[in-house]
Amino acid sequence: MNQQEWTDQLEHEEFSDLGVCPNGPNTNFGTHTHEQHTIQVVLRGFLIVKDSHGQKTYHVGERLEVPAGTTHQAKCGPAGCTFLVGVKEEK
Questions:
Q1: DSSP label of 64
Q2: Which helix (H) or strand (E) is 87 found in, with range?
Q3: Residues 6 or more apart from 4 whose CB is under 8 A from it?
Q4: Which option is the CATH number for 3-88: 2.60.120.10, 3.30.565.10, 3.40.50.300, 3.20.20.10?
Q5: Cα 38 from Cα 32, distance rounded (Å)
Q6: 29, 69, 84, 90: which could form a disulfide with 74 (CB 3.0–4.6 Å)?
Q7: What stretch of H or E contains 4?
Q8: How far apart are CA 46 and CA 35, in angstroms?
Q9: How far apart are CA 28 and CA 48, in angstroms?
Q10: pTM over 0.90
Q11: What single DSSP character describes residue 15?
Q12: How far apart are CA 72 and CA 16, in angstroms?
């Protein structure tokens, strides 16, 4: 899917505050949590995420959902990473 198709899909799934986040090479987000359920869809490059379940690399077209309060680490690949990000109210 392209960016617009992902945006439409995520809006249909009730995600809001959707935006594109370009990040430079090897951007390291460190250990953190989010206050809301968060989704990220990789549009360019790749994103490495580590949490209590292990480590996984997310490539173009893959989506990552992080429930509110989940402790995790994230790092972009050497060419940087751009992702579509949004949040959803947990019910």
A1: E
A2: strand 72-88
A3: none
A4: 2.60.120.10
A5: 12
A6: 29
A7: helix 3-12
A8: 24
A9: 10
A10: yes
A11: -
A12: 22
Q: How far is Cα 32 from Cα 47, in angstroms, rounded to an integer?
A: 15
Place of tokens 């809301």: 36
Measured in whole angstroms, how far is the alpha carbon of residue 18 from the centre of its chain?
11
Identify residue 12 by its one-letter amino acid code.
H
What's the one-letter identity of residue 50? K
Name the 3-class secondary structure at 16.
strand
Nearest CA among 31, 33, 36 for reference residue 18? 36
Tell me the one-letter amino acid at 89.
E
